[in-house]
Amino acid sequence: QVRLVESGGGLVQPGGSLTLSCEVSGSPVRFLAVEWHRQAPGNQREFVARIGQWGATNYADFVRGRFTISRDGGKNTVHIELNSLTPEDTAVYYCKVATPNNQYWGPGTQVTVSS
After folding, report:
1. How many CB atoms lie within 10 A of CB 111?
2. CB contact at 8 A, 85 and 113
3. Positive/negative CA dihedral, 89, 93, 95, 100
């Protein structure tokens, strides 16, 4: 059973930065593909970024080089660094792991970008 817990959200001004963390338990993170998704009020949940088992990364088009996903095997944690934030980035950010038989989601962490 994989368990995910996000942290690091908060209120930030436009142009600011945050680093979110997804602490993984139940499996070494190096064996998992971990994704970040987000959901803004009134919108569907959308894909943000992914880091695969071998470390390959990919991002949604709207990221445009502003976000960086990384993995810390020692802490069994996946991070996503959010830079150049805009109000449109306001959302609850979730991490996700998909295995052949299950999908696991964390409870999410709120990011609010506002002046």
Report:
1. 21
2. yes
3. negative
Q: List, in order, residues 6 or more apart from 9 with CB less than 8 Å away.
A: 18, 20, 92, 93, 109, 110, 111, 112
Instruction: Say if residues 57 and 51 touch (Cβ distance below 8 Å).
Output: yes
State how far the Cα of 18 lies from the Cα of 113, in Å rounded to an integer: 10
In angstroms, the CA 56 to CA 68 distance is 12
- Residue 43 tokens read as 């919108």
CA distance 62 to 66: 9
In this prediction, residue 99 carries a pLDDT of 85
pLDDT at 51: 97
CA atoms 66, 63, 56, 12: torsion sign = positive
Q: Kindly give the parts of the chain with pLDDT less than 50.
A: none
